[in-house]
Amino acid sequence: MWPYPTMIAHRGGGTTAPENTLAALAAGLRHGYRAVEFDVMLSRDGIGVVIHDADFGRTVPGSGSVPDTDAFDLVKRDAGGWFGAAFAGEPVPLFVPFAEYCKAHGIWMNVEIKPAPGHDEATGRWVAGTVRTLFARETDSAGLPLLSSFSTAALRAARAAAPELPRAILFGALPPDWEGQARELGVVAVHADHRRLTPALAQAVKSAGFGLFCYTVNDPARARTLLDWGVDALCTDRIDLLPADFI
Ligand code: G3P
Ligand code: MG
């Protein structure tokens, strides 16, 4: 039901390094984490980059947006200076070398398909097609990245492009028809905001045969409670507080 790791570093390295960067992956490794969640969006010229916000201004200085900028230009942007001077110049990563780094270091991936508005299908298709190519020789299904998204259109496109890859649907609060959506999309797991989850909902998800992942859990006592409810996995920003072997 959930053959993947239990503890997952959110956005690469949580709050120990600038999110969604190679420096974040390195920080995760230093903290013993071998499982990450990160966000992938398409550049103007249709290349997947690792970034959360479509608009510049928070992690990348200036104005403009990812879907209006070519990958060639995006990789020259500073995605680390906002976090601290020591990370200034840390680039916006291209997805392919980012995933290759994970493969090389034995880091399992939850790839969140994060389409910029209006780019749902293209992003789902690109991520799934690219992961299929990168993992064509993977013989252990538990080693495949798990593709997740809030966007049902992106998940449908991902399924059409690479039906063999595992997918998960992301929710805030689980809607009343969560199970119908999950079955219709053929996902293996449900990803939920832990603040909106209840023990009864957790049990319902597990009883229905889906994996259950929670985001973003930063308090060890809360993590313990969720795991006691039957939650299979969680991502955390506090990889410094929650050890990778916390179970
Ligand atoms: O995939 C879990 C979590 O990352 C979803 O929310 O906004 O942090 O991408 P967000
Ligand atoms: Mg995310």
TrEMBL record:
Keywords: Hydrolase
Pfam families the record matches: GDPD
Top-rank taxon, per record: Bacteria
Residues of the GP-PDE domain: 5-246
GO BP field: lipid metabolic process
EC numbers: 3.1.4.46
Cited SUPFAM superfamilies: PLC-like phosphodiesterases (SSF51695)
Keyword presence, Transcription: no
Enzyme class at the top of the EC tree: hydrolase
GO molecular function annotations of the record: glycerophosphodiester phosphodiesterase activity
PANTHER family: GLYCEROPHOSPHODIESTER PHOSPHODIESTERASE, CYTOPLASMIC, GLYCEROPHOSPHORYL DIESTER PHOSPHODIESTERASE
Protein name in the entry: Glycerophosphodiester phosphodiesterase
Source organism: Pseudoduganella dura
